[in-house]
Task: structure prediction
Amino acid sequence: MKRTFTQIASLWKEDKRKYVKTASYAVYLQLCNVYILPVFGARTAFADDDVQAFAEKLLADGYALKTVKDTVLVLKMILRFGEKLKAWPHVDVSVRYPATADSGHTIATLSLQQQRRLLAYLHAHFSFRNLGLQICLQSGLRIGEICGLQWKDLDVAAGVIKVRKTVQRIYLADGESKAYFLSIDTPKTATSVRDIPLSAELKALLRPFKKVVDPECYLLSNAIDPMEPSAYRAYFYHLLKVLGIPPVRFHALRHSFATRCIENRCDYKTVSAILGHASISTTLDLYVHPGYKEKKQVIDRMAKALSASCK
Result:
């Protein structure tokens, strides 16, 4: 008797859980249970057209391109797993996405004026939560990374922030089993484990605290337990409202840091390393968008070089 997709998916989940971080596993689980199993659960045979139609249906239903691509990736992993178990024959899956599909990807940043207004408030109203926002604006840390920062990770003598952990609230749901828990794990990728230089301003601000705080305590809470990202996100949103700054996601602090770096002509590769991107191409795609002025400068330099070579 042939095994169904649901049966193979269950085995795949057990196997996958052993090799990926809990946060990644939670995402795979949700994509599988919510989107894939309702469509393919009872199936025992598959064709490339089935996956193509599945992707197109998700896009037609209004899901973002990234969500669709992530879901198709999980579907492909389960199909390959089934092939290894000889549950079904190999299927060449090559999904084509419409050129007009919305990537759902926009970069929201604070304007320079808004960033200065926020920094002025943070300087005038000290708290550990406000200190965390200052660090984010001067380092590009992700929200999970700033929540996972302990005092021992701030090395004032060496002048570096040691990014070694990330904090996430994870929801695992599989059948009748459901669980919420706080995960303290290594950062998103291998390149996310990094040392970021402290500015002179932050070193001066941190130095007196380093003499009295418990190095094992977390920066934002100054306690042995970290602040949860959802609570810190809510604090940030409230602060924007108080300051009359239009609402943006917390991640906009990271985008704002990167944007200011690029605006000030910082080296792209160095900015990429500070952000912890796996590839410089990620940094270039997200933040480097030459305008007319930059394009004209390139054309003028090229023309000048050609003119000089002809003399």
About this structure: Residues 112-287 form a domain with the hpI Integrase; Chain A fold (CATH 1.10.443.10). The CA atoms of residues 17 and 25 lie 6 Å apart. The two ends are 81 Å apart (CA to CA).
